[in-house]
Amino acid sequence: MKQHVDLTDKELRAAIRGGNIQFAGNVKLKIYGLLSCSSGKRMKRANRVFFETAEEALAKGYHPCGNCMRSSYQNWKQDMEKG
User: Pseudo-torsion of CA 26, 31, 34, 39, nearest 10°?
Assistant: First the structure.
């Protein structure tokens, strides 16, 4: 997990191009989603973190975005309801 405030724009672009960043998350809401998500693009830089994989985000306690990752979100929600 990488904090957005700790990365320069150049470092961020290089990490995305290199495949080291594939998902973005919101620290306060514990949600992660695709880099192209319209909801995620409105997020404040101070609240944004980046993940290499969805598994990394889940391991850190984040859940999928209901906007850009609907099927993953629905699966996560069903798992949470089961207990």
Answer: -70
DSSP-derived letter for residue 83 is: -
Torsion of CA 41, 18, 61, 69, to 10 degrees: 50
**What is the spatial distance between Cα 13 and Cα 79, in angstroms, rounded to a whole number?**
34
H or E element in which residue 31 lies: strand 31-34
pTM of the model: 0.89
CB distance 3 to 33 below 8 Å? no
Neighbouring C-alpha atoms within 13 Å toward the C-beta of 47: 13
Instruction: Tell me the average confidence (pLDDT) per consecutive run of 10 residues in the chain, 83 residues long.
Output: 95 94 96 93 94 96 96 93 82
